[in-house]
Amino acid sequence: MSDARKNLIRILQNAHAGELAAAYAYRGHWKSVRNEKEKEGIKKIEAEEWEHRENVRKWLSELNAQPRKLREAVFWTIGRTLGLTCYVSGWFFPMYFAGRLESQNVQEYVTAAEFAKELGMKDCYEEMMQMSQTEGEHENFFSQTVAKHKLLPITKSVFKWS
């Protein structure tokens, strides 16, 4: 198996579990938010995370690979736990860390696209780039949402997400 194929599979396996955690975390997040515009934005993002998970699953299947069951179980737990903590952690931190996470996902899908391109998987390349763009839109939503919060300057200096 080529290194590009192994690397693409590993990224897709990680993304598949990560999208599960994100979707469940966002479900709890939007249920805990009072502002209707924010609630609708997070609902939309949750739906897109489920869509990304389905797309990733399709490409894993195309590569004759499967999600890693233990990682799926761990990330299911993480997502459900984060979704519940949104009710007690306040508004700012779930918004901030969601944006920070989305910024990492942008690069993850670009890297996946590069491996797909190396393997001659044009459709996969294009889909990974589109998913990267969508993750960037998610990051932008959360970034704009927290932009004027009083905790942002100190949080940015500690956790390094602009």
Strand coverage percent: under 5%
* Number of domain modules: 1
Number of helices: 6
Using only C-alpha atoms, the radius of gyration works out to: 16 Å
* N→C terminal distance: 38 Å
| Total number of beta strands | 0
Biggest sheet descriptor: none
Helical content band: over 70%
What do the pLDDT scores average to? 94
CATH fold-level assignment: Ferritin
CATH hierarchy: architecture: Up-down Bundle
Q: Supply the helix-strand structural class.
A: mainly alpha
Secondary-structure blueprint:
Elements: H1 3-32, H2 36-62, H3 69-85, H4 92-118, H5 122-146, H6 152-159
Description of the molecule:
The chain is mostly helical and 162 residues long. The chain has a single domain (3-159), classed as Up-down Bundle (Ferritin), CATH 1.20.1260.10. The chain has six helices and no strands. Helix 1 runs antiparallel to helix 2 (36-62). The longest helix is centred in the first third of the chain and has 30 residues, at 3-32. The chain is globular and about 50 Å long. The N and C termini lie far apart (38 Å). The relative contact order is 0.15. The model has no long low-confidence stretch (mean pLDDT 94).
